[in-house]
Design a protein that fits this description.
four-stranded antiparallel β-sheet, succinyl-diaminopimelate desuccinylase activity, six-stranded mixed β-sheet, 9 helices, acetylornithine deacetylase activity, Bact_exopeptidase_dim_dom, binds zinc ion, 380 residues, Aminopeptidase, DapE_proteobac
Length: 380
């Protein structure tokens, strides 16, 4: 039996060892596939990162498939049952690094689009691909730069489908319609180093900071809302001391992270943290790193089309969720685009023996097709 289109595309992509930020020709392969379907191909290279913007059509609305061709490193090859960059089919499961995150989804995008433009050559609006090779890395020269380029020429995405593996047990059971924000604080609290036997000559920053840390750790930041769990504060790293048992440390370092809901802004969180530290009379330095603003695509045509497509193809009622880590959706949503993440089951992503059920990729492709049909074909 010959491979289906989805399977052969997925295999072709997995066979390319595109460990972030390498692309290894994945995007060229996509471009060669999309150009004959009527797409205008625009490679966008920024430093070490290869990106692809491909668009068919010049009018709105724009339905965009977004994703990444890079993968995380395979890890120790001897821990894999099959070589990580040799796509291997065993009992209906396709094994290889990137099978689930997210070369499988890209194969499903491509097959869905080929079928759609064949069936509906005169569809409405445009279909686009926004693909990067820097999603698993520092995400500097990938999607943010492409979005900047599009914004500069006022090219807008109406609906964006990110192929990140959103599903939990069955394909389509969970769709991400937003993500929490992520904000990291690097705090240094200053004391005065000294001998533990002469505490009156020193100031212990651990003791000084403890009540403030307690307040930060126990504070109810918000109650979340319909779409988001409550904002959470977590200490990730804490360090003080010289290693000697007779020295009061001079400094305390605390690194903490907020995963926050749309009830708060990063500015509000920063202000509240600084108020607490100041109220406790601490001498401190605090550096903030914002890795992503929260975003939410509530009700709307894209959410409706996604729910309907999943129901029609799988019979499942999908669950809308904002849990999990960040994704490139956070860079696309601020342009005003509606953003949904829908991809295969995420049980094995970033692990050894990463795999995806081939039947799930076919199902995904059918769901993507169904969504385009709802959004880009006039029903009268
Ligand atoms: Zn991914």
């Amino acid at each position: 039996m010959t491979d289906s289109l989805v399977l052969s595309l997925a295999k072709d992509l997995i066979a390319r060892p595109s460990v972030t930020p390498a692309d290894e020709g994945c995007q060229q392969m996509m471009a060669d596939f999309l150009a004959p379907l009527g797409f205008t191909i625009e490679p966008l290279v920024f430093h070490d990162t290869t990106n692809l913007w491909a668009r068919k059509g010049t009018t709105g609305p724009v339905f965009c498939f977004a994703g990444h061709t890079d993968v995380v490193p395979a890890g120790p090859a001897e821990k894999w049952n099959t070589p990580p960059f040799e796509p291997t089919l065993i009992d209906g499961m396709l094994y290889g690094r990137g099978a689930a995150d997210m070369k499988g989804s890209i194969a499903s995008f491509m097959a869905a689009v080929q079928r759609f433009v064949t069936d509906h050559p005169d569809h409405q609006g445009s279909i686009a691909f926004l693909i990067t090779s820097d999603e698993e890395g520092p995400f500097i020269n990938g999607t943010p730069k492409v979005v900047e380029t599009l914004e500069a020429r006022q090219e807008k995405i109406t609906w964006c489908l990110v192929g990140e593996p959103s599903s939990t047990a069955h394909v389509g059971d969970v769709v991400k319609n937003g993500r929490r924000g992520s904000l990291t604080g690097d705090l240094t609290v200053f004391g005065i180093q000294g001998h533990v036997a002469y505490p009156h000559l020193a100031e212990n920053p651990v003791h000084l900071a403890a009540p403030a840390i307690y307040e930060l750790a126990t504070k109810q930041w918000d109650n979340g809302n319909e779409f988001f769990p409550a904002t959470s504060f977590q200490i990730a790293n804490i360090n003080a001391g010289t290693g000697a048992s007779n020295v009061i440390p001079g400094e305390l370092q605390v690194q903490f992270n907020f995963r926050y809901s749309t009830e708060l802004t990063d500015e509000q969180i920063k202000q509240q943290v600084e108020d607490i530290l100041t109220r406790h009379g601490l001498r401190y330095e605090l550096k903030w790193t914002l890795s992503g603003q929260p975003f939410l695509t509530g009700s709307g045509k894209l959410v409706e089309a996604t729910q309907r497509a999943i129901k029609a193809i799988t019979g499942r009622e999908t669950e809308l969720s904002t849990s999990g880590g960040t994704s490139d959706g956070r860079f696309i949503a601020p342009t005003g685009a509606q953003v949904i993440e829908l991809g295969p089951v995420n049980a094995t992503i970033h692990k050894v023996n990463e795999c995806v059920r081939v039947a799930d990729l076919e199902t995904l492709s059918d769901i993507y097709y169904h969504m385009m049909q709802q959004l880009l074909v006039k029903h009268d």
